[in-house]
Amino acid sequence: MNAMEKVAWTDLTVSVVAVAAATLLVPWLGSRATSAFALLALTAMLSVFFMRPRGNRIVIDERDQEIAKKATSVGVGTAWFTLSAAVATATVWASYSNTHEVSTVFLNWLIWVQFAICFGVKGLASVVMYRRQRHAS
Amino acid sequence: MPRKKEPTLSNCIRDLRTKSAMTQQELADRVGVTRQTIVALEGGAYTPSLALALRIAKVFSKTTDDVFQLDE
Fold this sequence. Notes:
The structure holds 2 protein chains of 2 kinds.
Chain A: H1 3-29, H2 41-50, H3 62-96, H4 104-135
Helix pairs in contact in A: 1-2, 1-4, 3-4
Chain B: E1 8-11, H1 13-19, H2 24-31, H3 35-42, H4 50-59, H5 64-67, E2 68-71
Antiparallel strand pairs in B: 1-2
Helix pairs in contact in B: 2-3
């Protein structure tokens, strides 16, 4: 497994763990359970660790860059789509239920979940692309 | 409307490498990629950039036509 594949697995795992931790902490912390999304910072820290230089050996090459570009596009696209759909649904719901307001707690959750979706989908897309290339032969 | 099928690129990198008694890591180091990319290339799962194809051909002192074939 090369460095960027480890980064992909890290993105996927940390995102799933962050969402699970935030959900599990809701009964105790309420809306402050979103602090569990701070775990997403691990993706950046571990990426730096995995991509550290190793002598003259190549760590990231053109195939890794190509996969990262496609996966980022899929992750960001999915996050934007779900964000738009969630905001539209919340707005329609608020206007039809005569409350005419959207909870800031809901918006806080929405923003953090979008980050988790972005990293999670990016990681999943990368893992799938790496596995396809490995099993093609 | 039927879609045009993408042509695939086959290669003889594995044969050339074994004839040269070179490991995948040695070839990877010489052309500036990771060993996993050489694995993907030999398995026909990855289409290299023109620059990488030229570097691989140069390592074996061949032309790109000798190393890569277009399967249409």
